[in-house]
Structures are given as structure tokens and as C-alpha cells.
Amino acid sequence: MKTLVPRPCHQLQAVLGSAVFFPEQVAYNLSISTYWSQQERSLTYSCIVSPQNTQDVSKVVVVLSQYQAAAKSTIAGCKFAIRGAGHTPWAGSANIVGDVTIDMTSIGAVILNRAKTAISVGVRGLVTGGGVSYFAPRYVFVCDQVVNYEIVLANGTAVNANAENNSDLWFALQDGSNNFGDGTRM
Predict the structure, then answer these.
(1) Low-confidence winner among 43-47, 86-90, 98-102, 136-140 (lowest mean pLDDT)
(2) For residue 48, which of 9, 21, 67, 179 is within the disulfide window of CB 3.0 to 4.6 Å?
(3) How many Cα atoms within 13 Å fall on the side-chain side of residue 50?
(4) How many other CB atoms are found less than 10 A from the CB of residue 110?
(5) Is the pTM here over 0.85, yes or no?
(6) What would the 3-class secondary structure string for the chain be?
(7) Highest mean pLDDT of the ranges 29-38, 80-89, 109-118
(8) CA-to-CA distance for 171 and 186, rounded, in angstroms?
(9) How far apart are CA 75 and CA 38, in angstroms?
(10) What does the CA dihedral 46, 49, 105, 152 come to, rounded to 10 degrees?
(11) How do 182-185 and 158-162 pair as beta strands?
């Protein structure tokens, strides 16, 4: 049976090409199979977008925002979800039924500074969800160690949020999940 694909998926494919996967493709099924919980794996969506860098994330956000703005006057807009590593156990936390999932697993390179005292990695749900882990009693919450977030806002603009710049956003990201933008680096 052929799956009907909403227009945003085709617009995303026009912008990002092979970084957009559909239900008939192996990459789509591979992405679904890597969710930690069965509840997350049970949901299916129209397409998966796998951005490779901050610029790709910005393009995705711009396309989805434009679609949302155009759709407000006619039909319900396209819903989307942002997936980090896919470890949240309840269905719908990192994917969405029938619409677009932005799979951030391709953005995850670890970069050390010259002194090897700070790292830059892709942002995942653990970090923006407060950072509670088994190591928290010994090493504090993960979010307490973040000195800078690079985040793509709803208009597609990439900004840095830290104690000096966009400090209110930096504070909100420490436990705000992906409600304030799509994190690409920390």
C-alpha cells in the first residue's frame, strides 16, 4: 500500500534531497528500529528528516514554519517532533504520528578544545531535559555543565545561548526540552 505523503515532506525533500526518508525506504525503517522503547517504535510518520549540520536544521525549521503559516488559514498545519537519541520511553515524546520527525542523530560529532578541557557535541534530550542521570549525585546534572547552546529558533535563525548572550534562553534550555528551539551544539 502506498503511503500518502503530506506536502511538507516533499518541500523538505526539495531542500535537503536524500536527507529525507519515506516509509518505503530502508533508512526510514532503520531510524524507527533504533528507538529505545517499543512505544516509540510503534508510531509511524510521513517522513523523517535527518539534518547533517546546523544549516540543514535551519532549512528544516524554515520550511516547516512557512508551511505552518500558510496552513493556518486553510487546514491544520504540519506537526513535527524532534528526536535526539530516542531514549524517552513514552510514545510521542520524540516522534509524531503521521507528520514529520526531525532525527538529530546525525549531528553528534565530539570536538575537544585545544586544552582538552571543554567539548562540543550535538544536543540531545538528556541535556535539555534537565540532565538527570545515575551520575547526577556525584557530578551534578548534565545541564549544569553546559556553558553554551547553539540553537535554531522557530524562524530558522541559529543563535548562541550562554551566560553572556541570550542568557534567558540559556537558562530556559537547562530544563525546557526542545520547547524553545532545536539544539544543534552545546
Answers:
(1) 86-90
(2) 21
(3) 14
(4) 8
(5) no
(6) CCCCCCHHHHHHHHHHHHHEECCCCHHHHHHHHCCCCHHHHCCCCCEEECCCCHHHHHHHHHHHHHHHHHHCCCCCCCCEEEECCCCCCCCCCCCCCCCEEEEHHHCCCCEECCCCCCEECCCCHHHHCCCCCCCHHHHCCHHHHCCEEEEECCCCCEEEEECCCCHHHHHHHCCCCCCCCEEEEC
(7) 29-38
(8) 13
(9) 31
(10) -120
(11) unpaired
Residue 161 in grid coordinates: 545561548
Instruction: Name the amino acid, one letter, at 153.
Output: L
Q: How many CA atoms lie within 13 A of 100 on its CB side?
A: 26
Contact yes or no for 122/69 (Cβ under 8 A): no
pLDDT at 1 over 50: no
Say which residue the cell 535554531 belongs to. Answer: 152
AA identity, residue 46? S
* Vertex 178 angle, CA 164 and 68, to 5°: 110
In tens, the pLDDT along 92-125 reads 667 777 788 888 888 866 677 777 666 655 566 6
Retrieve residue 43's grid coordinates.
508510531
Q: How many residues does the chain have?
A: 186
